[in-house]
Structure of UDP-N-acetylglucosamine 2-epimerase (non-hydrolyzing):
Amino acid sequence: MYKIMSIFGTRPEAIKMAPIIHAAAKDPQLESIVTVSAQHREMLDGVLHAFSITPDHDLNIMRHGQTLQSITSVILEQLTPVLEQERPDMVLVHGDTTTTFASALCAFYLQIPIAHVEAGLRTYHRYSPFPEEINRQLVSRLSTLHFAPTQTSAQNLLNEGICEKDIFVTGNTAIDALRLTENGQYHHEALDWAGGHRILLLTAHRRENQNGGLEHIFHAVLTLCERHPDIRVIFPCHRNPMIRSLAHEMLDGCNQIRIIEPLEVYDFHNIIRHSYLILTDSGGIQEEAPSLGKPVLVLRDTTERPEGVKAGTLKLVGTQEERILEESERLLNDAAAYAAMSNAANPYGDGRASERILAALHAYFEKNA
Ligand code: UD1
Ligand code: UDP
């Protein structure tokens, strides 16, 4: 029996770790423990509830106004006794948040091996996305096993000198999670409000967009609404108070825009399915939308998900108002351009990434027993 500990703290990590935790719970040779930092509180709890996960340890660290430094230092302090008490055979972390980095560093200090889920994503721009690009590069240095979602991400790791035998191309567990939330008979009050109009689904939260980028995005969306009375914008707004107050200040006057609370993952996945177009600076949504055949305009200057761009479903448009308008209008007005971007292509796997991750863990444990 081997003990694994999954450690995560934010909404996207929880969504993409949930399928692994479910699979591990059914594995008689694994003892699976869950520790959450709760870097996010409400947004994490929604996912835990949706996937029926009860953490064994909850560090409950979230504070309004938390900084990268405060998150890192609190996790290092509070995770240490938990790891010392549990002494797992492997720690699993996901992606590139500050919880991911600080937890991996803490495990490394205690010489506990680390498996990195969603490894090898890169932009090679240190401040874009910030701080995620450097977080994930550092976690690659700290990890023993690397679960790369695609061949492209595996190649990045190989280029950085990581041993081929430690890299596993698994697919992305985001696709495993999508399979858990599908519902053909879906209803939601925000969809009723949209009343059959074309829906633009908007999300925005990146730190590098909090310095002017968000204002440009919101201006572009307001102009789009003026020019297209037939669209409705649904904006499930992140709980970051700065983003919320700016969003309400700028967008409340427009009756084609609906700012709502962050959606539970089940609702969000199904609302993607009913949307016409997605405008987002999110990472995870860039993985989900291609597999659902929904065009995404990525409100960032870089992406670590070139597979979706290559598949034709994602387009990188940055945060300049003119460009957002131009690309959105093309998709609203030109049926051929829309059709070209809405072909469901799925570069992120077959929904069986969790199985492959567990198989690789078993192989590692057997070899190192
Ligand atoms: C974090 C991650 C980012 C990830 C994002 C997913 C870092 C540095 N950033 O950014 O990589 O893309 O999560 O959403 O790790 N808040 C609440 N309730 C919640 C969640 C957040 O009130 O459930 C508020 C708090 O005031 C908190 C603030 O949002 O201080 C910012 O949260 P934080 O985790 O620091 O940054 P995110 O932008 O969410
Ligand atoms: N998501 C959600 N509710 C929302 C918005 C997003 O459940 O209101 C899900 C989405 O389906 C995806 C994940 O949250 O799985 C993306 O999280 P986020 O954009 O916060 O972080 P990122 O992926 O950029 O790190």
